[in-house]
DNA sequence: ACCGTGAGTGTACGATCGTACGCTCCAAAG
DNA sequence: CTTTGGAGCGTACGATCGTACACTCACGGT
């Protein structure tokens, strides 16, 4: 018994392939077979490692939020004062809205799931909570909340707009929202 | 020939059933058969009225944007001055984020499609354009753009948040974004 | 050297899907 | 009344799907 025979990389490869496939084709077109082909694993591995499609999707989006939260952390933990924080937020908005189509698409797929199923809503709530913690290092809680929503809206509108707005407008919006919100320092 | 035999209500019922089904189960689970059952039409009507699934979805979301743009119009065309406009925007955010789950879910499904396919992006762009036209009646173009993004973010975060923020915070955010943007009056 | 065990796989089954297409049948033309 | 064309429908086909499950086989214990 206990043959050290297992391969933990299999699981990870399957999860990565799942996210890649969703980014390329959308949740509507995912299937165990396509994921297996992409990950280079036999079909039987799907039901062996995951109890079903729902289980697989939940875990895959868990990995995705880990990744996207890490991006937020990377941008929002560095700044040392409110002014640097504003610049970092602007960077974040522009990276998210014009960087890889992958993250943008996956974010929308996640929001769509979250709008309907509480299990996924918890993932987005954790994400929102984490980003607000960072923002509250430089702004009061109410301002942080408003700024968090603004980031969301600016990112989405920039990503979908025919002529995306420039960095100047992003910075102006951030400055306005945070104008009266960082008095204590 | 030219038997006035056609029934235009069939098409509409199919489109309405399509949106209902998407709101209930998500695009991933729609099928011609389920839509037909919901609309009370035979399966054959699906391929008769629409050239395929893609065609059907595109037209259905066209109807949806017509509806949601009408909601925007209803709220944003009434106000007579910037102060009333701010209140109307706050109303809009709260109606969209706590009203029918249906509109929220369909909006997210549409954004997900728009993030990947240009055909759907045109729908969201038209919607964004229309709402900005209304906002520009009371605020300068840059402010209108920022406010439009803020509406998006506030609505989504309020809809997904564990403890949605109150109207006071909504109004404060709107006031901040529009504070310096409505000088001409 | 032999077995037991459990990780990992190949395959097959029943369900469901999108779509094509031949058919019905009503209304207008003659 | 007979003809006829097109609107609309029922059905069947091939593809694809999720999942269950019997199986293989390398390894650790004896």
TrEMBL record, chains A, B:
DNA-binding region: 31-50
Statement: the UniProt record of this protein carries the keyword DNA-binding: yes
Keywords: DNA-binding, Transcription, Transcription regulation
Transcription among keywords: yes
Signal peptide residues on this chain, from the entry's feature table: none
Ranges in a coiled coil: none
MF GO annotations: DNA binding
UniProt-listed Gene3D superfamilies: Tetracycline Repressor, domain 2
Protein name: TetR family transcriptional regulator
